[in-house]
Amino acid sequence: MQIENQVFTDLRAATMATGTAPYGLIEAAAIAIISGRIAWVGAEADLPADYHDLTRSPLGNRLVTPALIDCHTHVVHGGHRAVEFEMRLNGATYEEVARAGGGIISTVKATRDASVDDLIAQALPRVDAMLAEGVTCIEVKSGYGLDRETELNMLRAARALPDHRPLRVVTSFLGAHAVPAEYKERADAYIAEVCIPTLKEAHAERLVDAVDGFCEGIAFLPDQIRPVFDAARDLGLPVKLHAEQLSNLGGAKLAASYGALSADHIEYLDSAGVDAMAEAGTVAVILPGAFYTLRETQMPPIDLLRKAQVPMALATDCNPGSAPMTSLLMTMNMGCTLFRMTPEETLRGVTTHAARALGLADCGSITAGQRADLAVWDVNHPAELAYRIGFNPLHTRIFGGTL
């Protein structure tokens, strides 16, 4: 239902705008929405006369935040990896599973066997779970095809999701996710013969918003990621990187040297990497779901990131292997309980900083001119969103001015 030219009143607005109040919180607030955009936000008592004739909709003193943004997902893929989950619980490490031909590679076969329609159908239940928690924008990566046609099909499926659900999708080409079996021990050849040509074709088909890679010993070394990033730069595409998840190979520093939007995971990030990210304006995307699932012990350097004023985003990392989760609310709780982030940091992490990690400037806060992407919650305080476990207090989701 369209809610054009309305003023929401009787609410508490966690604008996430910079200011002296925590959360940018405005008590007894009002939000004016015109043509799918936020026209004004502030104390209801200060509502400008220009908006007095608009339809008023009281929200019963509920909390309104920017709609949530999941800035790192692999939501489009075939099959599942429940058996490997069981293997890990029986003692196998993530790296051992991968080197035995499992992990990412086991999903490749299921994804290659799926059509675009199959991939869409399998993704939609995961997407629905995200939307039910107030998400309006998700990033979706390729990376489970590792051949030309399947990588393109994954991106085509991701681009088609908004045809089936009211949401915004940002796509990332992740051809440099793993070395497929047919290129075993020939990672450089895979990059040159498959990854980069497919990236160029995907760009020509307008399927790509950013380029990603997995910089790790079980995937690609920095010198192998570099030509992928060079190709992205030649195409005018921003980059991001799975970096320092299992070891410190200097991936975040490499990404920062290309002005990357984000470096993600970063559990093993060192001070040199933090400084490089701070200088480049690269967002740190924290992914506690994978940390939890893999039972890791090396935590990301949250204090170093704070001190360097590196923006910290949070995301589900929704994927079939290391983070089979769809809940950003649970992700926020994990960010607090596992990594000692504050509730305000986690809410900024799934709104303002998540938008920045995707290179989006028109969402992520409740400020004039932004898209009217909002979440209305049955809570009394913003910290409740990160505090509760397995509880969804969403009252209403507003996407571009539509309920």
What can you tell me about this protein's structure?
It is built from 15 helices and 14 strands. With 403 residues, it is α/β, with parallel strands linked by helices. Helix 8 links the parallel strand 9 (240-243) and strand 10 (262-265). Helix 6 (187-204) packs parallel to helix 7 (222-235). The longest helix has 18 residues, at 187-204. The mean pLDDT is 96.
Brief sketch in words of this structure:
By secondary structure, the chain is of the alpha/beta class. It contains 15 helices and 14 strands.
Topology of helices and strands:
Layout: E1 6-14, E2 25-34, E3 37-43, E4 55-66, E5 68-70, H1 82-89, H2 94-99, H3 104-112, H4 116-131, E6 135-141, H5 148-164, E7 168-176, H6 187-204, E8 210-215, H7 222-235, E9 240-243, H8 251-257, E10 262-265, H9 271-280, E11 283-286, H10 288-293, H11 302-307, E12 312-314, H12 328-339, H13 343-349, H14 352-357, E13 374-377, H15 384-387, E14 394-398
Parallel strand pairs: 1-4, 5-6, 6-7, 7-8, 8-9, 9-10, 10-11, 11-12
Antiparallel strand pairs: 1-2, 2-3, 4-13, 13-14
Helix pairs in contact: 4-5, 5-6, 6-7, 8-9, 12-13
Task: Determine the mean pLDDT.
Answer: 96
Distance between the termini: 5 Å
Instruction: Please count the beta strands (DSSP E, at least 2 residues each).
Output: 14
Structural class of the secondary elements?
alpha/beta
Element-by-element helix/strand order:
EEEEEHHHHEHEHEHEHEHEHHEHHHEHE
Q: What about the largest sheet?
A: 8 strands, parallel
DSSP strand content: 15-25%
